[in-house]
Amino acid sequence: MTEPLLATQDIGVRFGDFRALSEVTLSVMSGTVHSVIGPNGAGKTTLFNVLTGRLSPSEGRVVLAGRDVTRLPAHRRVHLGMARSFQVTNIFPELTVGENLRLALQAVSGAQPWIFWRGVDPDLGRMQAVAEEVGLTARISWRAGDLSHGGQRALEIGMALAADPRIIFLDEPLAGMGIDDVHRTKELIRGLAPARTVVLIEHNMRVVLDISEQVTVLAQGRTIAEGPPALIRGDAAVREAYLGSGM
Amino acid sequence: MSGQVLVFQVLNGIGIGMIYFLLSVGLTMIFGLMRFVNFAHGALYLVAAYTAYVISQLTGSMLWALLAGPLVAALVAVTAERLLLRHTYAMPHEAQILITFAVALIVQETVILIFDPLAKNVPVPDFLSGIVFIGPFVYPAYRLAVVAVAAVVALLLWLVLERTRFGAILRAGSESTEMVSLLGINIHRVFLGAFALGGALAGLAGALAAPLRGVEPFMGLEALGIAFVVVVVGGIGSFTGALLGGLLIGIVQSVMSSLWPEGARLMIYGAMALVLLARPAGLMGRA
Amino acid sequence: MSAFREGGRFPDLSTAGVAVALVALPFVLPTVTLASELVVFAVAAMSCAFLLGMVGLLSFGQGLFFGIGAYVSAILLREHGWATLPAVAVGAAASGLAAGMLAVLAVGRRGVYFVMLTLAFAQMGYFAMLALKDYTGGENGLTGVPRPPLLGGLGTLATAETAYGLLALLAFAAFLLVQRVSASPFGSVLRAIRENEARAEALGYDVRAFKIAAFALAGMLGGLAGAMHTIFLGFVPPNVIELEISERLIIMAIIGGTGAPAAPFLGAGFYVLMADLLSSLWPRWLMLVGFMLIAIVLFMRGGLWGGAASLFRRLRPGRTRS
């Protein structure tokens, strides 16, 4: 077996008396699509926040490619090849689509962001490439806030891709999308691997079981099952956890 | 500094600190409840101090002044909330700050218009003008009365917050205003009540302080700065934090005023910077 | 509050406008003194407007940096016999440094906490001035600050007119700097932070470091304005470091608008001219300013600049905003 690209060991997160996560241990292998599923309130987004550095865990470790990054702030992890999209669309709505992407590219362009003595120098080539990857080429001069919901979700993914990450975290990328957008976005995500590693939170079970190599199931802050889609499909504990939540 | 002077200054500091507590607790409470920073809070203190000045001039009675000050301050707070501030709850913090700052400016200029820019003395009430012997120590009676009044009010306030329905709503509201709304409570009435209570407390601070420091039109602005320091030191939104912060700042100011008179006020801010470095969220604040 | 617009151009039409205004002011206004005061406060207001418009930081403490710049430059001129230019430069740099250090304490705190801290720091500055009365003159301020030539005995500033020339040049340089920064990669990061701080962090920007840098830059502008004030007046009244200056700078920034680097010139101009006109007629005119501030926040977010810009657009119906 090769080393996992990202691993956690006994992650625990407490908010006061409330335990949001307990003893979550996870191994994400390089070049795979690894999904995290579970009912609402299972702690999926909290886990994402720990993995990407928005939140420090109360216990446990996060290791990226052999390096302990548990206490590393979010912006530093980006430079180690981590990028994410958010569950609630998180873009710069007042800026153009192009400027959103340019800012994402600029963030990982060394000392460029600190240059104050001359104008911005957009790397139009790369901006176009990212825009094309997420299907926004025609709308690059739009105000980002004027995009459709699907368009904004695509822009989010584009901003995450701009950093050319090794591992990309997508938090419910399909939420609220129409049927055409779902299919397109599914193909987009599938196409990211094996060049990149994808960690995915998603409620659309058909898509998850279709494109994931590995699935981790969380319930009430704990891992209740882990394995390839075929195994998860038949797991009794998973059925139990989802009973009544409309799997 | 001799032991006796030190004790004297600490006692003094407790008196000042209790006034700072009364001044700040409304600010911190209103912030905790509705994430609203009221830059006009110092203006309420100002209004009450001038009310106390006028009443004591007219009636010669500090007792009436102590009642009228908080009342007028609460009235001003409620009026401002009804007419203007309630329309800003949905706005960004910056807009709320600028609007309440403008209100403070208007109040300050109105005070100058009615009176004049000069400082005025407010006499200490006759029956409290003497001194008191506490064991071997001599202490001005009025300052002792300030500590007593403030302590009683602090206790009452604590009882209100802990034991009454209004207090429970205030505390719940500081956790989640959404939840309070879901419980079917008219959140706007709660806000109004919080403004009235916070205004009255700042008003009491102003009325109590008037005989100690006199009145002048810019005392509101100065008080706002002090209240911010107390809130930052104590931890925003915390009743206990406001009490601890107020006392700490009052004692630092008082003790330093005999060690380094020119720098006493400066050391308040030094204390704030130290607390900020050691505990960024304040003494009682949650990170 | 309105924000500096995306991209921004350097230089643009407003660059020429500011240059023309700086040349015309002493001829248009009744006195050179008034023109000098206007440009000094325009630079100071720029420091406030830059923070609010570019980074979304509301600072009630810019008067502190104004005061530090005023005192440091005055002490260098008066006690150490420095030439004017280096004294001004060091005054500005000292303020920038102080702002950077305070920012390390303050920018970790978000939103209202930050605003409260800036106000507290401004108060601290005033009491520090009183405590250091051996250097600052305490309540008396520093009188009799000389106005030596610019550098190495060259460039005399003997008359009010030549002094205005220097102040106008410094104001123009400050304006160019702000305009340059706002249309630079660094400026685009600040704008991103103002728009969506969490997103900027997730993209890989060290938000804290950028905020500290922006605060230091704004502090330097405030310090420059303070040093200019010393050159202008020839003495340092203790009120330069009072909280009232911080308030005045906020008022100027909001009235002028925070949507463009040139907007603070309008705000400072409005305030300084109103003060000159009204203070003798009705000394309590600040009350009107209070009502005006409320009206601007509620109904005219762009301030005077925003109002003028939308008027300009309406008068040219052929061009609509994209």
What is the H/E string of chain B? HHHHEEHHHHHHH
Average pLDDT for all residues of chain B: 87
Number of strands of chain C: 0
Broad shape of chain B = globular
Q: What's the main sheet of chain B like?
A: 2 strands, antiparallel
Q: Structural class, judged by helices and strands of chain B?
A: mainly alpha
Strand order across the largest sheet of chain B: 1-2
The chain pair forming the largest interface, with residue counts per chain, is: B-C, 42 and 40 residues
Radius of gyration of chain C: 19 Å
Helix content of chain B: over 70%
Q: What is the overall shape of chain C?
A: globular
Number of helices of chain C: 14
What low-confidence regions of chain B span 5 or more consecutive residues with pLDDT below 50?
A: none
Helix content of chain C: over 70%
Following the backbone from N to C, one meets helices and strands of chain C in this order, namely HHHHHHHHHHHHHH
Largest sheet of chain C: none
Question: What can you tell me about this protein's structure?
Answer:
The complex is a heterotrimer of chains A (247), B (287) and C (322). Helix content of chain A is 33%, strand content 24%. Chain A contains nine helices and ten strands. The model of chain A has no long low-confidence stretch (mean pLDDT 87). Chain B has helices at 3-34, 41-59, 62-83, 93-114, 141-163, 165-175, 177-182, 187-213, 219-234, 239-259, 264-278; strands spanning 131-134, 137-140. Chain C has a domain at 24-243. Chain C contains 14 helices and no strands. Classes of the chains: A alpha/beta (247), B mainly alpha (287), C mainly alpha (322). Chains in contact: A-C, B-C.
